Amino acid sequence: MASFSKLLSSVLIALLYSSAANANPWPLTSKHATHRTRAVGADGSLKLEVFHPESTFEGFGVEGLDHPLTRRAGNFDIEAASVSFLASKLGIQQKDIHFRTSAKAEVAQHAFLKQQINGVPVANAVANVAFSDDGKVLSFSSSFVKPSGSAEQTPTVSLNDAIATAEKALDGTHNGHPATLEFLIQPDGSAVLTHVIQIQNESAGTWVEAFVDAHSNKVVSVTDFVAKASYRVLPFNEEILTEGFQTLTDPQDLAASSLGWHNDGTTSTTTTAGNNVFAAKGSTATSQSSATLNFIYTQNAAQAPTVAVNVAAAVVNAFYIVNSVHDVTYRYGFTESTFNFQTNNFGKGGLGNDRVTVSVQDPAGTDNADFSTPPDGQSGHMRMFLWDFTSPGRDGALENDIVIHENTHGVTNRMTGGGTGRCLQTTEAGGMGEGWSDTLADWAHQGATTQNFVLGQYVINNPAGIRSHPYSTSATTNPLRYSSLKTLNEVHAIGEVWANMLHNVYASLVNVHGWSATARTNPGGTEGNIVFLHLFLDALLLQPCNPTFLTARDAWIQADANRFAGANKCVLWNAFASRGLGVNAANHNDDSTVPAGC
Ligand SMILES: *[C@@H]1O[C@H](CO)[C@@H](O)[C@H](O)[C@H]1NC(C)=O
Ligand SMILES: [Ca+2]
Ligand SMILES: [Zn+2]
Predict the structure, then answer these.
(1) Could you tell me the pLDDT band of residue 230, with boundaries at 50, 70 and 90?
(2) Which domains does the chain have, with CATH numbers?
């Protein structure tokens, strides 16, 4: 072990670093922000405690920070600016920083960086910096650490041996995606050297990035690309929910999908396969049922979901919803350059060849659904299962809020941290991932008057849905607060707290600014539901890798400063504070304070 403390201690400013080595012992839920216990392998029998150093977030309000090193005469160079800003802010040398990528969004440009040790990147010590068009720093976040020691940087375990170890430990196969060599910060503050290898098992539905110690040949950590739905089950009653089918003509948004939904720039299809989505049961996409692009299949609820016409109806619905999520999130900032899912990126930045693949009536499970988000450039994969609460059973692909929930995992996992799929891995960040997914489904279903929102009624045939409470502004209907996290450990339960806070933010914004019926295609409007969705997506790019409720809230406040000059600052603070996430909230203790003047 070579110690880095001598080398770096004179130039490090401890304040801005998470001091990993001093953070033990952890009270139970204080680990939410930094840890997550993963049960991996095909049967979940291998337990790993995954660690991410604490991340910080600092926003510089409407003014931004006029940092002397960020300005370059004439041409703004985001790489030079972000590296010099970070080096001076953290008091480290530029050689300790690796500029990974950048993304130009509508109201800010974003740099994504990693710590490096002697030129070897550190997987879980990352940073991002947002700049205005005139080169001011709008915000930055970091989980850089001062390692207490570091392994030799030349591996003594070969990649092939590491692959064999990972395949055996994780019950899967290396999928051929190029492996990397990266340091990984451990909870004691030391840096281990790891081979990073993607392992997949199609039948078990697992897809992880394994970190294998390149000296001891042990699996020391994983990134789990799969967001699993583990739905809470409520007793079901006899009420039957029916939401009417409609035939929509040309629902595609050409501003988001310039060649429509059945053309990737080189190939035109007449199936449920296009530039954004490939949807099928098995490997064959559903073909049109008439000579033109008419995907008309009338679902027969009295028959099993597996009869041909019901399969086709489900595939077409999933294709329609996932394309619609592509188009609406595209309008609000999830584009090629911010790491979205498309086969052809039309030269607009980011990596292509990663449209969402949707497996409808996937045979691997029941009563569930999941979504895997590998890094930009590899397809997101959605699996929809059948539900057996009723007879005949029901198809999750026909419940739009389930499809939107799963699809949103792809949006949040790609936009947070710059397209790596590594940045919603802690318990708290994973919980918020579930929350955002419920929230986009909530947003999609709201009308002129904000209503309580319930997720998953159709699949289990119960108006109470699959969460513990409806999302509501009423503290009687939904009592969840920031302090509820003290007793919650499961990501969907934590997600309910976050989704309910965002429901309250949404209701407040609509209360102030009204509601637009054309929000999906008109992001330029001033209404509250439009303002909300802008802040939702803008904040994802600003927030740290593995955010907490506190840093995610701060990113919303900064997003409002960036786009609306802080016009909604007090509305946002009041809504967050109403559920305990006020100015002085910390360590899962509520606070209802709002800033002076609010
Ligand atoms: C994949 O998982 C299944 C269990 O679902 C297991 O039987 C199989 O051996 C695994 N495949 C590999 C390559 O480990
Ligand atoms: Ca992409
Ligand atoms: Zn989920």
Answers:
(1) very low
(2) 23-53+149-224 (3.10.450.40), 56-142 (3.10.450), 230-415 (3.10.170.10), 427-577 (1.10.390.10)
